[in-house]
Design a protein that fits this description.
alpha/beta
């Protein structure tokens, strides 16, 4: 992740989950098109623009999932960048492998919560809340 002074801190142990990006590719392309005029200074940000707020929020949601941590703008009243990641999964029928968080490594500062519920886990299915190979 590129360094920026827009966030309130530096993301920790940044590793991109390309699967999330692939799943959200079409949405990200649309959001980038919507936000580009603001990013390059062609349009002024109107704090009362609900559609702009929705586009920024949706973009952040996807990036937080892809990077596995909070991304908080300077001055925002929310958890700091790099902090708690919450994953919630509700599965009626699990077949194959379902994992809440699968990370090669995470920094010690990351606080992760996984909340999963599966109605039925089939014989060929498995539900794993958290799989991390290295912490710190």
């Amino acid at each position: 992740m590129a360094e920026t002074d827009v966030l309130d801190g530096v993301p920790v142990g940044v590793e991109l989950d390309t699967g999330t990006i692939q799943l959200e590719e079409a949405t990200l392309v649309r959001l980038i098109q919507d936000l580009a005029p603001y990013a390059v200074g062609l349009s002024d940000v109107d704090p009362g623009d609900a559609s702009l707020a929705t586009a920024v929020s949706r973009t952040r949601d996807i990036l937080e999932r892809a990077y596995g941590q909070r991304l908080t703008f300077r001055g925002e009243d929310r958890a700091e960048t790099g902090s708690r990641l919450t994953v919630t999964q509700r599965i009626s029928q699990a077949s194959g492998e379902i994992t809440g968080v699968d990370a090669e490594s995470i920094g010690r500062a990351v606080d992760i919560a996984v909340d999963q519920a599966a109605g039925e886990v089939r014989e060929d299915g498995s539900v794993t809340g958290l799989r991390i190979r290295r912490i710190g």
